[in-house]
Amino acid sequence: MPTLVPVAEPKYQIHARHTDSTVIVYQAYGPEIGLPAAREGRFPAVWQRDRMTWNKPRS
What we know:
17% of the residues lie in helices and 14% in strands. It is built from 1 helix and 2 strands. This is DUF4291 domain-containing protein.
């Protein structure tokens, strides 16, 4: 029987849901952005749209 070796959790992960026609990717934010966004339903002033990174699908 092979020996199982624990694998470290990767530093970066992508969490997503998908259907045949759609992929939804979830973005994690630090507490200074995530907590106010979850509480107020909108991003706080410290969040900047121009700092976002887009994942581009390959075809």
